[in-house]
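In response to reviewer comment 3 from the previous cycle, which asked for concrete evidence that the modeling workflow produces usable outputs, we include below a single protein chain processed end to end. The sequence was submitted unchanged, and the resulting structure tokens are shown without manual editing.
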Amino acid sequence: MSNDHPDRATPARAELEVDVGIVGAGLAGLAAATALRAAGATVAVLEARDGVGGRLRNEMLGGAVIADAGGAWMGAGHERLAALARSLGEHSFPTYDVGDNVLLLRGRRRTYRGTIPRLNPVVLLDLLRARRRIDRLARRVTADCPWEAPDARRHDRETFATWMRRHVHTRTGRELLAIAGRTVWGADPNELGLLHVLFYVSSAGGIERLFDTQGGAQQDRFAGGAQALATGLAERLGGAVFRSAPVERIVAERGGVRLVSPRLSVSARRVVVAIPPALTARIDFAPELGGMRRQLAQRMPLGTLTKCFALYRRPFWRESGCSGEAVSDSGPATLTFDCSPEDGRAGVLLGFVGGPDARAFSRLGPGERRRVVLGGFARLFGPAAAAPEDYLEASWADEPWSQGGPTSSFGAGGWTAYGPCLRAPVGRIHWAGTETATVWSGYMEGALESAERVVAEVLAEGPVAGAARGGPGAAAEERGVGGPGQGRAADPAGARS
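The workflow returned the following structure tokens.
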């Protein structure tokens, strides 16, 4: 006999009523849930993974050293992130950048200080002019509506690659900007719309802030790993967070919205979707989203980025006066950082493989990938780099509930066609996540800014409290789906597909 209401409670699917349902337990979703609860609303956060954090994930090197497999850094001016860390008691410390940086270009190794390598004066002037031109154009782009910027349509008709061919006159200058782009966006300049690059630079407050360590986006790291921030928020929310609960359907109903996962059905007055735009294509919306919103999910793909970590007994490169930061055109890791513990009890090198390099890298076997990465580290820092105590890779394209990283990007034409849909609510459905941020889009700070915006948006629609008689933990206990302090044992088991 058919079920007349297939999305409602069944023996296999529990039912829950809250004021606001949230899809995704990354920083944006968890921060939004925390703020909405503080405003008096009941909330339920549904997360597809068996853990929280989204694109934040702690891994262990050698069983004792934390590696940030996903987002890692707190930059200068990341005030929301700093405040969250303080509230959770999470300690941060400066990224090590004392000493010489290394540049390996066309087989020649040289060292330099700062963000601009020591190069031929013609190349240096070319790079400086390009960066100043990007900053000047970005200042004319308002991050909340880049499609309305002067010359927005003209800028959005071309890719970053075509712009570089016209304005960056040296081969080396173009190569270095491409290396930076493959790390920042996980994409080749051919895949990036110029207007998207200008939006991104605008949201960060300038191109130097994107690339710098001290005073820039890579300034500080967290001793307990960045995922500890998400874990701390989830612990505060307790039974309101449901892991292993991938949302399969979002159904608009009279006076509310229903979220449906394999083991849980949540009725809410409003919904916040806090996942990357591309991943919304995996959810069945009823009624269907408008055509432009559906196409947005196709036109804003996630990048391709792999992080490669090597653990050593000590940070030996410091002994020769190197900072651990390097740029290399020989790859496969084209950008490296020193990600050692604060006390220096062990050494950790991190290498980024991004964009088309990462796609080619993924076709190699595990042993070959390790060999070529460590060979690249050895060319930069000496033969000791080829013999680590442990080695770890994190490929976000292989993560089924991320499908890429570090962030999502529009190609040419994307912002002017689909930008107005990115943050605009659809009925009672609201959108959050770092891609929707107007400040530090693509970063943890951006995720938190997006949470602030979406909470204000939800509350501006009128009172939300009162849909559920008890808090989400109490409601969950009544229906047999966990409750306060819900942990792995209380998760909807087997819900992950």
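The radius of gyration is 23 Å. We consider this sufficient to address the reviewer's concern, and the full set will be provided in the supplementary archive.
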